[in-house]
Design goal:
mainly alpha; DNA-binding; Arc Repressor Mutant, subunit A; homodimer; 72% helix
Chain lengths: 213, 213
DNA sequence: GTCTATAGGCTGATAGAC
DNA sequence: GTCTATCAGCCTATAGAC
């Protein structure tokens, strides 16, 4: 059945093309401007054709979210290799804020838009339908990214820099919310904050580490 | 000119009615669902009539934002009276997060939606047109709220709990971003965070204060 | 598989009657 | 000042021709 395999490849290929066009529209005009017609125009197909590859607009948005989490994870991974936990936390925080600033549309989509998309993509999920996204490492990428942060606090414990009975998950959540606050407020209230993102994340991380002592 | 004054009063009255209807729609269905037609239905007027009281939809959104900042300010004001700066910071942080959780639609609108509305309402502005909103204390309410937070750090300095050369504005920005992170992430990623808002804000504030030492 | 065409809905905003 | 009617546009999704 080599012919059916070819068809499968072609299907995945056009799905990727659709997602790629969708991503560009979101980056350029924002998520609200993502319409089936615009995608169709971009890939030079008729609007109806897209429905052969995705059930509806929401399904495209969810896939876009999953991809966004994957990108975030890839962005944080290099910092996870840093041995010194304090240096690692600083690097990871910097990478996170950098990611949010450089990929603002993606960041908005995965963390500031609709819980419907955020939650669906954040949690680990099986294949939605059609089985088209089988060998997809994106499942749970958001959770994996969060685990990288949790691991920093485990490392701090191993280091005796943190009480052994401290709750790593909880500390990771507190730290994450503060990073998210910096990125998201900068995206919406850019003109009000006098401090740059870089200064904010540096100071916030230093204060946080100082508070842990 | 008693008759023209009556007309002015009636105009303001209907403007208030429009804003009030708009607020309810946003609270119930979200900002994207705010349409002129729905407002018109709610106040039992024809859609076109609204344009006699507001230039367009954006103008309504901006007024809604200004009102939101005013509400936030009112919510924080009582805590500003607390003398001990540490207790004041804790109370203010709690009130802020409480406000965001209880008024999620308003919070989304003023801090998570469109910079166009956020910035316009956050900064102090003169009367937009028509002079209808003259005796309006909402101008700069967002800034006033932020100043309440800055004052806490000034108080900590006066208290010798903080170095005299510390930058109060900067510390306020860092602290504010962390509060905003808690509220906004809870609004979008509610199911992912294991910790409650109340626990997050308590721990974050304690860590922050500890870091300041 | 892809097209055209369209159903059936929504939107902001305006013109002109009363 | 308020109405009705409507313009001009957008949207998702589907049906049926090829």
């Amino acid at each position: 059945m080599g012919s059916s395999e070819r068809k499968e490849r072609q299907k995945v290929e056009l799905q990727q093309q659709i997602l790629s066009a969708a991503k560009e529209i979101v980056s350029r005009d924002g998520f609200a401007a993502l319409t089936m017609r615009k995608i169709a125009d971009a890939i030079e197909y008729a609007p109806g054709t897209i429905y052969l590859y995705f059930e509806n607009r929401d399904e495209i948005a969810k896939q876009l979210c999953r991809q966004g989490y994957r990108e975030l994870l890839e962005c944080l991974k290099p910092t996870a290799a840093i041995l010194d936990p304090r240096a690692r936390l600083r690097a990871m925080a910097g990478a996170y804020v950098q990611f949010g600033s450089s990929n603002s549309a993606t960041y908005r989509l995965i963390f500031m838009e609709d819980p419907k998309f955020t939650d669906a993509a954040l949690s680990a999920v099986p294949i939605p339908q059609g089985g088209g996204y089988a060998n997809d490492s994106s499942n749970g990428a958001g959770i994996q990214a969060f685990q990288l942060l949790v691991a920093v606090f485990d490392a701090l414990k191993a280091n005796r820099s943190l009480r052994a009975d401290a709750d790593s998950t909880r500390l990771a959540e507190i730290f994450w919310t503060s990073l998210h606050g910096i990125v998201s407020l900068k995206l919406t209230c850019s003109s009000f904050l006098a401090t740059t993102s870089e200064e904010l994340v540096t100071s916030a991380t230093d204060l946080f580490l100082a508070g842990l002592e």
